[in-house]
Amino acid sequence: MKTDELREKYLSFFQTKGHHRQASDVLVPTWDPSVLFTPAGMNQFKDHFLGKVKLDFTRATSCQKCLRTGDIDNVGRTAYHHTFFEMLGNFSFGDYFKNEAVAWAWEFLTDKKWLGIDPARLTVTVYKDDDEAFKIWNEKIGLPTARISRLEEDENFWPASAPSQGPDGVCGPCSEIYYTLDSGKTVEIWNLVFTQFNRVGNPPDNLRPLPSKNIDTGMGMERTASVLQNVPTNFHIDILMPIVQAASEVCGVPYQYESDHGRRLRRITDHVRACTFAIHENVYPGAKKARYVIKRLLRRAVLDGHQMGLREPFMHQLVPVVAEMMKAVYPELLQTTERVAQVMKREESDFFATIDSGLDRIGKVFHEMQSSGRVMVDGREAANLYQTHGVPPEMFQQIAAEKNYTFDWDGYRAAMGEHGEKSGGGGMELFETGPIETLKEALQHCEFLGYEKTQSDSQVKGIIVGKPKEDHLVGSIKSDAVVGMTRIVLDRSPFYGESGGQLGDSGQLRSPKGTFEVTDTQRSGELIIHYGKLLSGELKEGDMVTASVDEPHRDAIRRAHSATHILHHALQKTVGSHAQQQGSKVDADWLRFDFSNQEPLTEELLKRVESISNACVQEASPIDWKLVPLAVAREAGAMMLFGEKYPDPVRMVSMGSFSKELCGGTHASRTDEIGTIEILSEESVASGVRRITALTGKRAVEQRKKIEQLAGQTAALLGCTIASLGDKTMELVTAVRKLKKLTGGTGNDAIPDLVVKGKSPATSADYSVARAAFKQAARAVNVSLEEVPGRIEALLVEQSQLHLQLQQIATSGGMSIEDLLGQAELVGGTQLIVAETPHANAGMMRQWIDQLRKRSADPIAILLANCVDDKVTLIAGISQTLVERGLSAGKWITPVAEAVGGGGGGKPDLAQAGGKLPAKLPEALQVAKDTWHAMLA
Ligand code: ATP
Ligand code: MG
Prior knowledge:
Bound molecules: adenosine-5'-triphosphate, magnesium ion
Oligomer: single chain
Distance between the termini: 101 Å
């Protein structure tokens, strides 16, 4: 049986048993802080199990995309573990229980109409105390006792070992179904979890029956397919073998099951599937959390390729094969293969660029460890290797483990400044507890009224005070007794809780007895949580309040949110359809919009994005929304983001005829309410992700005024037109740079012309011209916009000072190279110049020496001296040929320096010294001549 057929059969079977067919949740459920990736089918139903949401159905079935980081080390080694895999499941929320769950599992597996597996091949396990399950298998199904094992809590309880070790909360025994292979070995294909207890404290007597019992099952789709297809491993099933084969071709290595290369090819197959799905969902390889896991998987696969001799990116070539294999259920993968492959290729190249030197370093580390007898890899070394060569520590650890070396994780974390957090998501609580969760169970839902109004009469349903982890519900609060942040939950509210990137509302909750100021609003599941402070009076549970949103603030947020949709549209139109939203943040007349694109946008392109956006604004198109079934929205061509979880029905926001997006945010009612969209910047946030920051409404207008004013002010300083502001600033910066070089004695440029205040008045210019010119100026002087005029003023001052200094040097005592050459005397075949150069600074003197050496045909020795403010500076230099003869400027200068009461030295070809006795200078110059004569003798 084909895998696609198995998947479909499972879902239809449970539909015939009255189950709602639920689509897979996303792979990276950002709504659930307790996991990085969806680990099982039940994850999306957590709140259903606990009665924290309204139930539209009490039976569900799904095929869930899962990723388990805990199984990474097993991949390629065992026949049955992947990181990415699909889990088939059926769920009961207080509906049917053990009897049906067991009977249906058996029917689906053995009935000829469904899988038709030979019952003799199946064995099961139950929890040791679960007589009920044992009886059902034995008496109702007729399975002989010999084929039912009773296992301990570490094997057959969920969560594992919960009865003795916790955590407190819902839990229950499970029953696993195993298939016996031809070899006699068994493989677990399906796990049925019977959630029937609430654990309270430690044993004994700590498992209380739940009033409403649940069923949660998980069948490994690849495992079951491998059994049905009678192949040796999951990797040999119809949807995976072609990827293994493609990997073998791309890597130029034949696939052999029992070989190191075979294991590598399987690992590449698994990892490329995981990475394809994640990147498709816009989870790009990166430094943190889920993104880091993807980076690790990708690099691990690249290492496998490297070990098979590859030196160029290869994995990305497998993306289309993955999409092809998975397209029956995930046709959307076909739409993004190009983008996914591009992101993958870039990450591969990055790693290939450093992998050789990284492995080299690892080799050296191992070598040192061996010779010093150490067995633990130094954590600091690992941190260093990650930062310089991008070798993930987990990979280093794996390579080390192959040599039986251990790994100093504490040292690594200390070196990275981390605090023991693991990226794997371990240690996080599976189910959250606390006052908010209690309120969720009690209320399930808080109606949001804010699409239509900004004020409502609402009832206080919960008041929470206290710091996180110590927070608790209270019946009432009085203004003078409350310290810190208080949270209020109402039955219904016009306040928007932060979500979808849009920040929460602020405002007030007022009753005749008290006023509560809301400074922020958040969402937790279906609840709206008002954060703030009681300003006066008191507030009690059950009080009726008038909840009023701060309208100007909300309006500013609405403008900014609508602007993100417009920008998205403009980006799609100019940059391309791959320029999809990656994230956003919407505040009052301020927004940040992240989108996929490898390269920075050119200035030209960015200008087009902005002008298209503003054309949409000026069009004054109506902004409407309606609730539609998800399928209808898809049909209508609404923009859907991969990796986003959409409810059904979904809220579709449309603007004129150009934009349809699925969005829960609050919006302007016509595009022209936005006023203006002013883009502030475009920058990189992560590999392949760019970010635009922009303003709307009043803030955009203010920004424009500010730029116009600053540009005018700067142009006036430079006396140029606004349009030429950028060029003129560049000129000034270049001139100052050259002047600095010249006065410092380096550089051979001619003295540049002064950039002076021109005659052109600071005429007004078209805004976009003014902004471009002004931004160019800001980039040239490398300061923030506000600082530009000040910086230009300072540069103008610096320029005239440097210029003055240079003129002084040039005219110092009428001295020039020619004058100095004229003073040269021939001593033993060498030219000797010993001279005083008043006014020249050390840089200038060095420059002269340099030029004299270049100009002289004979070997030459020069010693220049000057006095400034009672300080003598001496610099001596000799030609390279003299150095080669063993002579040294350093040795030459020493007695000269002593003669003026000082010291110094330097290299054989150039030496510098100082002294404190200017009066002795004539004597010292004589010492210089005598010493040189002596040195040549
Ligand atoms: P195992 O002990 O084999 O790792 P598990 O006890 O972790 O399995 P469950 O958490 O009960 O598995 O998940 C339900 C089903 O999902 C399993 O019966 C198995 O068929 C499948 N499954 C679990 N982990 C993986 C994996 N890493 N790759 C493929 N299938 C898996
Ligand atoms: Mg497991």
